[in-house]
Structures are given as structure tokens and as C-alpha cells.
Amino acid sequence: MSSVVIDGVARQFDNHRALNDVSITIEQGEFFSLLGPSGCGKTTLLNIIAGFLSPNKGRVLIGGKDVTALPPYQRHIGMVFQNYALFPHLSVADNVAFGLKVRKVTRNEQQRRVTEALKQVRLEGLAQRMPHQLSGGQQQRVAIARALAIEPQVLLLDEPLSNLDARLRKEMQDELRALQQRVGITTVLVTHDQEEALTLSDRIGILGQGELQQTGAPAALYRQPANRFVAEFVGQANLFHVSAQNGRYQARDHFVAAGAALQLSAAQPAGASSLLIVRPERVQFSTEPQQFASNGSVASVKEVSFAGATLRLVCQLPGGGEIRVQPAEAHFSQLPAPGDRCYLHWQAADVIVLPAQESV
């Protein structure tokens, strides 16, 4: 196990700047995810860590050693690709042993490591099968076993679950996290799936437009986003532009027509003009008449989506704006329908205040 330090890394392709002065320290034994939309630079950064690309600026250290100029095979990393990259003409055991043969590991040692790697991913009885005889989840585990067999210091995962169906993907998320915790290897995952990153990671780095927007534990990123990009990318967010009036905050757009004042908790100071966020699941929904001194409004249901344990509602405010709400399905004997009158409310402590520069 080793730490990974990305120090001021930049990478440009022709006129496109894929990464701009990115610095991250990934601790030994940590499960760290690089999360962001397509084209944000996360795969480019993973390839720089792996040694498949060279940075135009900056350096990469693994275990305290500068590996920026080293080829991939000298970096002591294991890599799992999006398409698994298994050799179709080789058995499971031979696929897992491939990296060991390239490194000229003795036959007895190869057998020991292959057996151990297949045991780690719970494929002990499938050593002689061919890749086409395996399910997608089993192929993914073979790819992980092959990466682990070389006993790397760092494991790199390039969207390894993206080709699986939803049910299998959830199962493999659980297995992957359990495996990483058993082995204790430093792991870097690239994904655009926020739920996957939140589920698997000790910490997450949010990339946007080639820049590191924020790093932190999953709960911290969700509850305390550093900027609008993070707030909108990690989970859903209702955003309100507000301005102060006599110590309270009156919305400039949606809520001014509803006459609803927005109050903040004392722990969340805001500037004279701020951008506030309320998460949909924090909005309390009722069809019974309510009186609001603050943080509430009458509304009407515009859209209803049944999502199993929860509902996803879009409600229209009197001023014409919309707000997303996510109440528990169990709260309703009869589900709301478009056109129903409703009453929305949230606590002051559930309002997230973004930095002043985000207020536009």
C-alpha cells in the first residue's frame, strides 16, 4: 500500500486544457473517487497516475517516490479497465497470471498468487473457464483479480461497473467495497455516477472543467458543497437567489411572489446577496393547510414520479418558479396528483449558503 500525491498536474490536448493545476493527496489504504461529468478530465488524470499519459506540468508521487517519468510497468500499480480487457483465448487462471508471466515470476509463485487472487474475488472454482463462459460481474472480478495478482501498491479503476445492469452494478459496488476493505489497498476510482462514488468512497474529488472543485468525505460534499457546481452535481438541489432585508432574506425570484421569507440558522452567515440551496428531501410536503412565518410556501403539484420508497415531485410556486420535493411514499394513503394544492416547508438549518462569488 502506498499514498498517491498529484502535485500541480496540468495536461493540454491541442487547444483544449484537460487539466489545470490539479493537486490531490490520496492517503495510504484510502478508497478515493474522482467524480465528474464527461469531459471533466478525470480519465485523463487516472491515465497520468497510471503512466499512460505524461503531464505537461506537475508530478505524480507513489509511496513518496516521484514516478512522473517512469513507464506504467515500473509504477507498481494495478489497473482495471472499463471493458475489463480480458484475453478471450485464455482461461480465467491464465488471464489472472498474465501480468505475472510478463514479470517472469516463477511458476510456483504464479500458481500461489493466482489462487489467492481468485479467492479474494470469490472465483476459486472458475479458474479453468473461458471469459465467454462468465457473466459480466464474473468477468469484472477476473479483471480485478488480475490487477491484484501482481501485488500492486495502488489499484486504479476506470469506471469498472459501467457495463453492468442496475441490479448487478449495486451488488458489485458492495463486493468491491468489501474487497478493498479486506485487502486494504490504496484505490482510485474514476466514475461519473455520483451514487457509486458516495457509496464506495472514503473521500471524493470533484472535477469540473479540468479543475478540482472540492475534495472531502461523501457526507461533507453533500452537506457543505464549496460552490454551485458541486451542489448541483452531487445530489439534486433547489437554488434560490436572495437578498437581505432587515436581517432576513427575501428571495429575488421565486418566493417574492409567494411572500415567503427565508431564514438562515445562526451558524450560516450570508452576504447581502447570496445563493441558497435546499435539498429536495429536506422539503416537508403536506396537502393540509399550513401557516408559514418563514421557509414555506403554498404551491401546486406539477409533476409526480413514483420511485419506490420515495416520490419525486415538481411543485410550482405562485411566482411561477419550480421546486423539487422528495417525500417518502409511505406518508401518503393516496398519492398526490398534478394540480393538487400543497404546502411546502423546511427548517432554517437545512438551508445551505454558497459563497458570495456564486451569487449571480
From TrEMBL:
Role description: Part of the ABC transporter complex PotABCD involved in spermidine/putrescine import. Responsible for energy coupling to the transport system.
UniProt key word Transmembrane helix: no
Keywords: ATP-binding, Cell membrane, Membrane, Nucleotide-binding, Translocase, Transport
The ABC transporter domain, residue ranges: 4-234
Keyword Cell division in annotation: no
Listed transmembrane segments: none
Name recorded for this polypeptide: Spermidine/putrescine import ATP-binding protein PotA
Family according to the record: Belongs to the ABC transporter superfamily. Drug exporter-2 (TC 3.A.1.117) family.
Subunit text: The complex is composed of two ATP-binding proteins (PotA), two transmembrane proteins (PotB and PotC) and a solute-binding protein (PotD).
InterPro entries attached to this UniProt entry: AAA+_ATPase, ABC_SmlMolc_Importer, ABC_transporter-like_ATP-bd, ABC_transporter-like_CS, Mo/tungstate-bd_C_term_dom, P-loop_NTPase, PotA-like, Transp-assoc_OB_typ2
Organism classification: Bacteria, Pseudomonadati, Pseudomonadota, Gammaproteobacteria, Enterobacterales
GO biological process per UniProt: quaternary ammonium group transport
Catalysed reactions listed for this entry: ATP + H2O + polyamine-[polyamine-binding protein]Side 1 = ADP + phosphate + polyamineSide 2 + [polyamine-binding protein]Side 1
SMART domains in the record: AAA
GO MF annotation list: ABC-type polyamine transporter activity; ATP binding; ATP hydrolysis activity
Annotated coiled-coil segments of the chain: none
UniProt GO cellular component terms: ATP-binding cassette (ABC) transporter complex
PANTHER family: SPERMIDINE/PUTRESCINE IMPORT ATP-BINDING PROTEIN POTA, SPERMIDINE_PUTRESCINE IMPORT ATP-BINDING PROTEIN POTA
Enzyme Commission (EC) number: 7.6.2.11
